[in-house]
Design a protein that fits this description.
Blueprint: H1 3-6, E1 14-17, H2 44-57, E2 61-64, H3 76-85, E3 89-92
Parallel strand pairs: 1-2, 2-3
Helix pairs in contact: 2-3
Length: 95
């Protein structure tokens, strides 16, 4: 019987993360224009902890993308390494 059928906690298989809403492009067709990029980013230490915790919880894969250019968050490479070390499969959408 599956964990969810037993009422047991379980991790999602896949998670999407947007490390920042900042972008270094000004694409006229961007789907995020309506949010008027507010300059918000996940703090570096928290981003790294999120990736570590996702892997430890049993999440299988993470897609890094979202409402801005992910690599503007300078902690993303360290977070990717931390997640990889816990067994995450990680993909990135970038410009």
């Amino acid at each position: 019987m599956l964990k969810w059928q037993k009422g047991e906690p379980f991790a999602p298989i896949y998670v999407e993360i947007s490390p920042t809403d900042l972008c270094n492009q000004n694409c006229h067709f961007c789907y995020t224009d309506y949010i008027k990029h507010q300059g918000k980013s996940i703090p570096g230490d928290l981003l790294i902890k999120i990736f570590e915790d996702l892997g430890k919880a049993g999440v299988k894969s993470v897609q890094v993308q979202g409402t801005g250019e992910p690599f503007i968050n300078k902690s993303l490479p360290d977070a990717i390494i931390a997640g990889y070390e816990t067994g995450l499969s990680i993909g990135c959408g970038t410009n």
